[in-house]
Backbone:
């Protein structure tokens, strides 16, 4: 048996090599490497897959969140409610636009505890940013109800949730604006970096399209005029009007999905349901085999059809268990060992150890094991045996 990997992206490529490589070669032969038909087609197809009206591709998942925040005009002096048990990029994006992340603890399913949100809302709060974590979906009905009550936007961090369903619908995981990552290890991953913003709101889509290319083009002009109208300011006479990349109305970014990655992702998207089914199968087999072994099994809510970006176990002696697994050649890892409210970058916000208990507990007591769909039966059985032995079963 070859060495087991926590995430093995090579195997998927081996399975679909001819299909993937032909897609890439077709772009290389075309000479159209930035934008073009492949990018536009993938935006449409991925939006349709999740039931959204508009898809705006970009360079990575972090940029997707930044674009969403900028499109909602969130910036200095504003607050965004999110979780500290997530990858740094979630809160980093909030800080990057000048706003302040306000941290709310997660529930036992690792997603934001919706019952704790309202107590954190202040006059400065502009949005709620839930994270669909490890492929599990947050309680969107509660979150959206709170947002409507307080006139807040909902920005969903879906970086780990491509293919996840909420109450039977992929659209159910979406907020007013939602952000995806196509990092190579994700459920839908490219061979580099890539991201996407999904929304049903045409104005937000136009703003994102402009911000991603230096605040230029017709969408930038439309957004610029809208902002002037909100300020009761007339359009200045000396502002040039045009639709090309040389007419800039906003201070934006240069964040684009390459055509090569778009072509590859289009092919992978046709197999995404298969990939998710494989992850769910492996997770179900783990759940059955590890019952009663002393592990806290990966949680599952009745409203969430988990896509299992990661399969995570909990154990009071997680460090000891992982040491035993590594000795047996079973890869495992902690996601994420330092919750964001205790990161040095956010010390100035005044959080202290013990202030957000679940996030701090999970950072010490949970670990991920391989769940990728190409995992063999032999490998999975070996992992299960090692887990049972490590727990003394």
Residues:
């Amino acid at each position: 048996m070859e060495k087991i990997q926590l995430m093995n992206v090579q195997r998927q490529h081996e399975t679909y090599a001819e299909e993937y490589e032909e897609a890439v070669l077709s772009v290389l032969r075309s000479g159209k490497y930035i934008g073009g038909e492949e990018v536009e087609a993938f935006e449409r197809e991925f939006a349709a897959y999740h039931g959204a009206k508009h898809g705006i591709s970009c360079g990575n998942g972090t940029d997707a969140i930044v674009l969403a925040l900028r499109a909602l005009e969130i910036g200095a002096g504003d607050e965004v409610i999110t979780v500290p048990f997530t990858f740094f990029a979630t809160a980093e994006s909030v800080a990057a636009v000048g706003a302040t992340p306000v941290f709310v603890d997660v529930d036992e399913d690792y997603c934001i505890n919706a019952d704790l949100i309202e107590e954190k809302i202040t006059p400065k709060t502009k949005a709620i940013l839930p994270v669909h974590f490890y492929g599990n979906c947050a309680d969107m009905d509660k979150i959206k109800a709170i947002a409507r009550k307080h006139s807040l936007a909902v920005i969903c961090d879906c970086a780990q949730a491509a293919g996840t369903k909420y109450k039977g619908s992929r659209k159910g995981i979406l907020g007013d604006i939602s952000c995806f990552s196509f990092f190579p290890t994700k459920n839908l991953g490219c061979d580099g970096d890539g991201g996407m913003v999904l929304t049903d709101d045409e104005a937000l889509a136009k703003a994102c399209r402009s911000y991603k290319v230096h605040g230029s083009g017709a969408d930038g002009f439309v957004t610029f005029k809208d902002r002037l109208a909100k300020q009761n300011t007339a359009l200045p006479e000396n502002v040039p009007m045009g639709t090309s990349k040389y007419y800039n109305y906003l201070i934006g970014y240069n964040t684009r999905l390459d055509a090569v990655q778009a072509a590859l992702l289009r092919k992978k998207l046709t197999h995404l349901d298969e990939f998710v089914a494989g992850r769910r199968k492996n997770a179900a087999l783990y759940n059955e085999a590890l019952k009663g072994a002393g592990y806290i099994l990966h949680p599952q809510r009745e409203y969430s059809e988990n896509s299992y970006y990661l399969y995570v176990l909990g154990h009071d002696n997680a460090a000891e268990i992982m040491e035993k697994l590594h000795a047996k050649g079973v890869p495992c890892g902690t996601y994420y060992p330092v919750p964001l409210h205790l990161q040095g970058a956010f010390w100035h916000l005044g959080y202290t150890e013990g202030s957000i208990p679940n996030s701090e507990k999970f950072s010490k007591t949970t670990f991920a094991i391989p769940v990728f769909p190409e995992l063999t039966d032999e490998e999975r059985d070996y992992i299960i045996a090692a887990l049972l032995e490590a727990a003394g079963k």
Observations:
- The longest strand covers residues 54-58.
